[in-house]
Design a protein that fits this description.
Layout (H helix, E strand, L loop, with lengths): L1 H29 L2 H8 L1 H4 L10 H11 L7 E3 L8 E5 L2 E5 L6 E5 L5 H11 L8 H24 L12 H31 L1 H11 L25 H11 L4 E6 L6 E7 L10 E6 L5 E5 L6 H14 L5 H34 L2
Antiparallel strand pairs: 1-2, 1-5, 2-3, 3-4, 5-6, 6-7, 7-8
C-alpha cells in the first residue's frame, strides 16, 4: 500500500506540478493584492485626511472636466480615510482627493500586472467561453488535495519535523517533510476552499440546499426595475444618504450613476465583513429616492454567508493581515515542496541513468 501511495504521490506531482507552482507563486502575491495595488500606485492611492469628504457630485465634475467632459458612470469610495476615491468614466478610473477635490491622475483601462497575476491564478490567462483555464486550475487544486493527503500518509511513519542534514538528498528530504507538515493545515484549507470556488456552479446549489436557504439579491442575477423619468434625479450624494439610512452601520463603497432609465445600485460593507468587496447592496429609484431592494450581509441567507466565509478563508481575509501572511507563506510552501520533491526524484533517478 505504501509503495502504491508513493507512486500516486509522484505521478500527481509530476502531472500537476507546473500548475501548482503557478498557484503557489501567484497565490502568495494575491494575498496582498489590495495592499500591493496601493503601493504600486502610491501617487494615486494615498491622501491626507482633512475633515469631511466633498460631495460626490463635485468630485465627479472635477473628474469629468479632466477627461474632457466624459460621462461619469460610477464612484468607488475608500473604506480607509487615507485612501483616495475613484470616479469611473467609460472604462477610465480617475483618482481624486476626496478632501480637496484635486484630480490625482488617471488609470488607463486594461489589465495591469496584478490583474494578470489574478487571471493567471484563476485561469492561466486563458479566456474562452468554456473557461478551460479555470477548469485546469481547479483540477490542479484537486491534485494538491491528493498530494496533501497522500503526503501525510507517507510522512506519518517517520514524523520528521526538523532539518537535520546539511546537504545531499537527505537535506532535501528533510526540507520536503518539514515544509509539508508545517503548512499542511493551511494548504488543506487553500485546496478545499479553492475547489469550492472553482466548481462554484456545482457546489453553490449544494451549499444552499445543505443550509436550507436560497440566494437573494446579491447572489443571483439582479432583477429589473421600472423607473418613471420626468422629475429631477436625486443625485449620488442623496442616494448614498438613503443607503446609509437603509442599512445602518454599513459603509457604502461603490455607487453607479445610472442612465435615464436605470437605478442606483450601491454596494456597502459592514466593519465585520471578511472580504474587501461589498456584500451588502441597496437599489434605489433615481427619481423618487424609493428603496427598491436591499440586502445586508448581516441578514444574508446562511448559504450566502457560507460562500463568503469560504472565499475569505481562501484569500486570507478571514483574520485580516495575520491570516494573509500565513496564507501567503503557505502558498510559497507549495513551491518549496515542488522543488524539493523534484530534486529528490531527480537525484534518485540519476544513478540509474549514469549506469546505462
Amino acid at each position: 500500500m505504501r509503495a502504491l501511495i508513493l507512486q500516486l504521490h509522484l505521478i500527481v506531482a509530476l502531472a500537476a506540478g507546473a500548475f501548482l507552482a503557478v498557484f503557489g507563486i501567484t497565490g502568495s502575491i494575491m494575498a496582498f493584492e489590495p495592499e500591493l495595488d496601493h503601493l504600486f500606485h502610491a501617487r494615486l492611492s494615498y491622501v491626507s485626511p482633512r475633515g469631511t469628504p466633498k460631495p460626490l457630485a463635485e468630485l465627479g465634475s472635477a473628474a469629468a472636466s479632466a477627461m474632457h467632459g466624459e460621462r461619469v458612470t460610477g464612484y468607488l469610495l475608500s473604506v480607509s480615510p487615507g485612501l483616495s476615491y475613484q470616479v469611473a468614466l467609460r472604462g477610465h478610473s480617475v483618482f481624486v482627493d476626496q478632501y480637496t477635490g484635486e484630480v490625482l491622475g488617471v488609470r488607463e483601462p486594461g489589465p495591469d500586472f496584478l490583474a494578470r497575476v489574478h487571471q493567471l491564478h484563476l485561469r492561466l490567462l486563458i479566456q474562452n467561453p468554456s473557461d478551460t483555464g479555470k477548469a485546469i486550475m481547479t483540477w490542479a487544486g484537486a491534485g494538491l488535495l491528493v498530494l496533501l493527503l497522500s503526503g501525510l500518509y507517507l510522512w506519518w511513519p517517520l514524523k520528521r519535523f526538523t532539518i537535520r542534514s546539511r546537504g545531499g538528498r537527505r537535506f532535501w528530504f528533510d526540507i520536503h517533510n518539514a515544509a509539508g507538515i508545517f503548512s499542511f493545515v493551511f494548504l488543506l484549507a487553500l485546496a478545499a476552499t479553492g475547489i469550492l470556488i472553482g466548481f462554484d456552479d456545482r457546489f453553490a446549489p449544494l451549499i444552499y440546499k445543505l443550509t436550507r436557504s436560497a440566494p437573494q439579491l446579491m447572489y443571483t442575477r439582479p432583477p429589473s426595475f421600472e423607473v418613471n423619468p420626468g422629475t429631477k434625479p436625486i443625485g449620488p450624494d442623496r442616494a448614498i444618504e438613503i443607503a446609509r439610512a437603509t442599512l445602518p452601520g454599513a459603509s457604502p463603497i461603490s455607487v453607479n450613476v445610472p442612465s435615464s432609465t436605470g437605478v442606483y445600485s450601491i454596494s456597502a460593507r459592514y466593519p465585520e465583513d471578511l472580504t474587501p468587496g461589498g456584500r451588502s447592496r441597496i437599489v434605489i429609484d433615481q427619481y423618487s429616492g424609493a428603496v427598491l431592494a436591499a440586502e445586508g450581509s448581516r441578514t444574508a441567507p446562511a448559504g450566502s454567508r457560507t460562500i463568503t466565509l469560504n472565499r475569505a478563508i481562501h484569500t486570507g481575509d478571514v483574520f485580516g493581515m495575520p491570516s494573509k501572511i500565513v496564507m501567503s507563506l503557505a502558498s510559497m510552501a507549495v513551491v518549496v515542496q515542488l522543488v524539493s520533491g523534484l530534486l529528490l526524484w531527480w537525484r534518485k533517478r540519476r544513478p540509474v541513468r549514469e549506469g546505462r
